[in-house]
Amino acid sequence: MEWFYGKFDEQSGRPGSTFIEGSFDEQSRTATLKTIRVESALRGSGLADSLLEMFVTAARMRGMQRIRGVFSPDEGCEDRARRFYERNGFRIGSDERPFGLGGTYTFETVEYDLTDPQQGQTPTS
Ligand SMILES: CC(C)(COP(=O)(O)OP(=O)(O)OC[C@H]1O[C@@H](n2cnc3c(N)ncnc32)[C@H](O)[C@@H]1OP(=O)(O)O)[C@@H](O)C(=O)NCCC(=O)NCCS
């Protein structure tokens, strides 16, 4: 397992407030997107796109076949985060995990198929 951390903090002066974090698992060829965060003053600047692109490129270079993550935006950020992922070619899906005594809970995921030549292409209208 290899960890990936990319950050942008030159303007904010607050290290780590704008960053992307994930990991690459060589065996399953799966990249995990753990967190992406752009500090509020810098949102809507295209920085989030650049951070995500950096992660996608790094995943491709390491031969990953897919990127997966949990969709868990900050409160109030849900629609914005959803649009952001979809605009960047990610699919919002869902998954289930065992919970408690025989129960399950469902959560939303973000997924990107790196083997699909259609993915990641700029949508045409
Ligand atoms: C999710 C997150 C990283 C997305 O970053 P963002 O900068 O807010 O998102 P975008 O890059 O999509 O920008 C937002 C808007 O600005 C617009 N925009 C993007 N780049 C632009 C640019 N260069 N110039 C002008 N507008 C731009 C987008 O079209 C978007 O508009 P829309 O929401 O009406 O579609 C950020 O909102 C964030 O850090 N949220 C808190 C943490 C979080 O919830 N993380 C996600 C965990 S799943």
TrEMBL record:
It comes from the Bacteria. One of its GO terms (molecular function) is acyltransferase activity, transferring groups other than amino-acyl groups. Pfam families: Acetyltransf_7. Keywords: Transferase. Gene3D superfamilies: 3.40.630.30. InterPro entries: Acyl_CoA_acyltransferase, GNAT_dom. Residues 19-117 form the N-acetyltransferase domain. This is Acetyltransferase (GNAT) family protein. It comes from candidate division WS6 bacterium OLB20.
